[in-house]
Design a protein that fits this description.
It comes from Pokkaliibacter plantistimulans. The protein is an alpha+beta fold and about 950 residues long. Helix 1 (about 10-75) crosses helix 9 (about 350-385) and helix 13 packs antiparallel against helix 14 (about 615-625). The longest helix has about 60 residues, at about 10-75.
């Protein structure tokens, strides 16, 4: 049969035969009902339009009647007889109550036969106040024209607040409003009742409204008020019969008096705002209805731009004296949509019967075809690599039930294969990996359980690494002899020592070099012991081969990780062993740093709430901490260990002392030469003693200065120069016995003839060690600086000048030597960055190389600021400083006690060297004390005012930590 032949579903045929006749009958009834309901709905639309017109008339009446009532009351007010402005202002309270208590009324005014005018307007919005340039607190404006004794009319504006306190008063010579020329005045003067103007747009408020006017009871004035009817347009939105129904109140001259979106269509010019014409509404149906009014009552159908409409026009009688009508256009499709809704309601019984029959047919057909369809779907899912959605089909059909069982087993096997692959690729811990793989392997093969043993070559035994569904396997099984390459896969290494009540199948695990890795022991259930095992054994052997490769790979990775850890610790130990001054530093800093970082990751303080460390993060941080000073391997030991100013590879104070010895001998020779020449012995004796005393004092001063101190003042520097200016005579050639490098330095200077007179202390050219192309690229603008360093390198590598070194103001290090020590962090970054770190360890160089940075950006080597530093980098900085302060193995300084060390840490945090939040955690969590008990001498652990420091740190942070 052709593959393109269309096949029919059994379920479809079963349902079709039941419901076809019922649907045919229902369709006839539905058609007839729709025709009748459509006619009824059109008639109902006409009735709804008439009711809508009546509703609008009623709403307009309710809008205007309160204003008319108020106006009739005001016609009896005494303001009509007031002839002066003070009299009229005396009625201000009455007028303010009128506009304040009726939101529809915007202004109340009085016009007089002599042209005088008095108006009170409510300033309800900021827009109105801006229009009149009114003061900020203005609530009302009084606009008036008053007749003066000289028959001139003066215009004035007065501004009042809500309590009718006068805020400002302006004389407006340009205010030339004459009420007698206004239509409302003229119409009211000729009538004994309230007159009403056609709707128009108030210029000041942009509201649509009408002006109501009435002659006063005494006939002396005309009283008017502006009443807003803008709410009418807003209320029309709620009267729409369908979403696209268009409703408008249109005057006979085509002006639109009310429309739901009328604000968008107002006609604006520089001097006026007017109502739109019907053509300007962008409503073609309303425009057609206005131009072609219905000739008979009720809805009339028409078509505009290919769309069918029903139109209704009803006269509006509430606005007496103004001829206008309500125009309503309804889309025919929306009107018929209501017809369909009504039809569905009328035919619910018929539809319900059809649904019941469809359900009956569907249920009967579904019960027959559901098992086959489910099997089809499951096989389709397998072809689409979806192995997780299969469930066993429970059916009375025997063939379908058996086929479902086969598919269920196949899906479970594939799913377990995928799970084994996932475990092998994701799990890093070998024991957990073996246990998960074993559990999946047992499930895929239908075995009862199993165990995995790994071979321990040192102990000559198999060690239990994981089990599933067994609980009585021994944890260790000793081999009878040392396995070697002659062991084959068929050997039974464990069966004699596994539980004898079970049948076991063993698979020996070997790596690519056929070295023994372990054994997988699988417990075979009784029902499988007598079946053909060839295919089963082949499958198990192939699967466990994958496990063997995974074990070999994991063990190789673990051994490489152990080797890396050992090399790192070896390097750190070598750095510590290089100098007794840093002994143990590279070992203690990681301990302290990990303690503090663990506290930070568990802390709930706001500063650390989003900081956490996974096991991988802890590994990166631990390695970085161990390697944080690896650059010190390039730091010369004599610079790191320099304890005196003249020290290089040795303390050159001995050379200086020898020169003083020469001067001592010279003084003695001068004494004996004087005696020999006949000089008085007493005089020569006094000169000798004075010279020798001076030499003793000078050397003592130089020797003491060589030790270094807190600060060397300018007077001491001058005395060094004076002492150094003394001369001594050298008789031996200083170019003999030199190394090649020394000869190159001496060759740069002339060779003086012997005997040579030299200064006691000198800064010689051969004391200068130039970079010779080895200058490190630490300047920010150096093209070779690709690490972001921002330091200043000295002009020369070393300056061993005696006066230069003795003149060091603080400590024992010159600028060049201090840079050389600081350069260790530069070398740390360069060395670590050159290593091919795996992806998880790529942050090691950054963390290890930032522990000398400061929060304020004045640290080195990259001048990082606090936002640029991670929590780990800031932790390592605190650990490095605290360990250096408390270390007891520094020959050049005594170990500081806890109180002194924490005091220094606080000052460094205050000065933005260290992170105050981390220091607060360091003290509050007790990490400092835990470290002290492990690494400090008992006499160093003294009392510390921890609460006091915590309070100072909280004040420093400005928030509660």
């Amino acid at each position: 049969m052709s593959g393109s032949t269309r096949r029919l579903s059994l379920q479809f045929l079963f349902i079709f035969s039941i419901v076809f006749l019922m649907l045919l009958t229902s369709g006839i009834f539905i058609y007839q009902g729709m025709r009748g309901s459509e006619t009824a709905l059109v008639s109902a639309a006409g009735e709804s339009a008439r009711q809508l017109s009546a509703t609008l008339n009623e709403r307009i009446r309710r809008l205007l009647e309160p204003a008319e009532s108020t106006l009739r009351l005001l016609s009896f007010d005494s303001i009509s007889a007031a002839t002066s402005m003070p009299e009229r202002l005396g009625r201000l309270q009455v007028f303010s109550e009128v506009v304040a208590n009726n939101p529809m009324i915007g202004a109340v005014y009085v016009g007089y036969p002599d042209g005088e005018f008095f108006l009170l307007r409510k300033l309800a919005t900021e827009k109105q106040r801006n229009y009149f340039s009114a003061p900020a607190d203005s609530a009302y404006i009084v606009q008036s024209r008053s007749l003066q004794p000289d028959d001139n009319i003066i215009g004035e504006w007065r501004f009042y607040d809500r309590n009718l306190r006068l805020l400002d008063r302006w004389q407006m010579s340009t205010y030339q409003f004459d009420p007698r020329s206004r239509p409302w005045y003229m119409r009211a003067s000729e009538s004994n009742d309230v007159t009403l103007t056609p709707p128009y747009v108030f210029f000041s408020t942009h509201e649509i409204g009408v002006t109501l006017a009435r002659r006063s009871a005494d006939g002396l004035a005309v009283i008017g008020m502006d009443a807003s009817v803008s709410d009418l347009s807003a209320e029309m939105r709620s009267l729409q019969m369908t979403p696209n129904t268009r409703i408008a109140v249109i005057a006979d001259d085509g002006k639109v008096m009310a429309y739901p979106q009328i604000e968008e269509h107002l006609q604006r010019s520089r001097s006026d705002i007017s109502l739109p014409m019907v053509q300007q509404l962008n409503a073609p149906a309303l425009e057609y209805l206005y131009n072609n009014p219905p000739t008979k009552t009720g809805p009339q159908s028409f078509s505009v731009n290919g769309t069918d409409w029903f139109g209704v026009v009803e006269p509006l009688t509430a606005v007496h004296g103004n001829h206008s009508s309500v125009y309503i256009s309804l889309p025919a499709n929306e009107l018929l949509a209501q017809t369909r809704s009504l039809m569905i309601s009328n035919l619910k019984l018929t539809a319900l019967m059809a649904v019941v029959l469809i359900l009956i047919g569907w249920i009967l057909g579904h019960r027959l075809t559901r098992p086959l369809q489910r099997l089809t779907d499951q096989i389709q899912a397998l072809t689409e690599f979806n192995f997780g959605s299969h469930t066993r089909i429970n059916t009375r059909l025997k063939e379908v039930h058996e086929l479902s069982g086969v598919i269920d087993k196949m899906t479970a096997t594939i799913r377990n294969f995928l799970a084994i692959t996932h475990v092998l690729s994701q799990e890093t811990r070998i024991e957990a990996m073996l246990e998960k793989v074993l559990r999946r392997l047992v499930a895929a093969t239908g075995l009862s359980g199993g165990a995995v043993y790994l071979w321990n070559e040192q102990e000559n035994c198999f060690v239990l690494a994981g089990t599933t569904a067994v609980s009585d396997c021994p944890t260790r099984i000793h081999a009878q002899q040392q396995p070697d390459g002659s062991v084959t896969r068929n050997e039974r290494l464990l069966s004699d020592q596994l539980p004898a009540s079970d049948s076991w199948h063993e698979v020996v695990l070997r790596n690519r070099e056929q070295e023994l890795l372990g054994v997988v022991a699988l417990k075979v259930p009784a029902e499988m012991q007598h079946t053909d095992k060839a295919d089963f054994h082949y499958f198990i052997n192939e699967m466990t081969g994958v496990v063997a490769i995974a074990i070999d790979t994991r063990q190789l990775i673990e051994s490489q990780e152990q080797l890396l850890e050992a090399i790192i610790k070896l390097l750190a130990d070598a750095i510590d062993a290089k100098s007794p001054h840093t002994s143990g530093h590279c070992q203690r800093v990681p301990e302290l740093a990990i303690l503090l970082s663990d506290r930070a990751s568990r802390s709930q303080q706001p500063r650390f709430r989003h900081f956490s460390m996974s096991e991988a993060d802890r590994t990166v941080f631990r390695i970085a901490a161990w390697l944080h000073d690896c650059g010190k391997i390039t730091s010369p030991e004599y610079v790191v260990d320099k304890a005196t100013k003249l020290e290089t590879l040795y303390n050159r104070i001995h050379e200086v002392r020898t020169r003083f010895e020469v001067l001592w001998r010279d003084a003695e020779l001068d004494y004996w030469r004087g005696i020999a020449s006949g000089e008085p012995e007493t005089l020569m004796q006094d000169q000798l003693h004075a010279r020798q005393q001076q030499l003793q004092e000078d050397f003592a001063f130089i020797a003491n200065t060589n030790i270094g101190g807190e600060f060397l003042d300018e007077e001491a520097v001058v005395r060094i120069q004076q002492i150094g200016d003394q001369l001594w005579v050298r008789h031996f050639d200083d170019r003999l016995g030199l190394s090649q490098e020394e000869r190159e330095r001496y060759d740069r200077i002339p060779h003086p003839a012997l005997p040579a007179t030299e200064q006691l202390l000198a800064d010689k050219p051969d004391h200068i060690f130039h970079w010779h192309g080895r200058r490190p690229p630490v300047e920010h603008d150096n093209p070779a600086n690709r690490w972001g360093f921002d330091m200043r390198a000295p002009e020369v590598a070393y300056n061993l000048g005696e006066r230069y070194n003795l003149g060091i103001r603080r400590g024992t290090l010159t600028e060049e030597e201090r840079f050389k020590i600081n350069e260790h962090i530069v070398q740390t970054i360069i060395m670590l960055d050159a290593l091919p770190w795996p992806r998880p360890l790529r942050d090691v160089p950054r963390i290890a190389g930032s522990h000398h940075e400061r929060l304020d950006g004045n640290g080195y080597p990259r001048r990082l600021t606090s936002p640029q530093m991670s929590v780990q980098e800031k932790v390592l900085a605190i650990a490095d400083v605290f360990e250096a302060l408390t270390a007891a193995d520094r020959p050049y300084k005594p170990a500081k006690p806890l109180s002194e060390s924490i005091r220094i840490l606080f000052f460094m945090a205050r000065d933005q060297h260290l992170d105050p939040s981390l220091l607060h955690l360091f003290l509050e969590s007790g990490v400092y004390l835990e470290y002290a008990h492990r690494f400090l001498k008992p006499e160093q652990i003294d009392e510390v005012d921890i609460p006091g420091y915590l309070q100072k740190l909280e004040e420093l942070l400005g928030v509660s930590v």
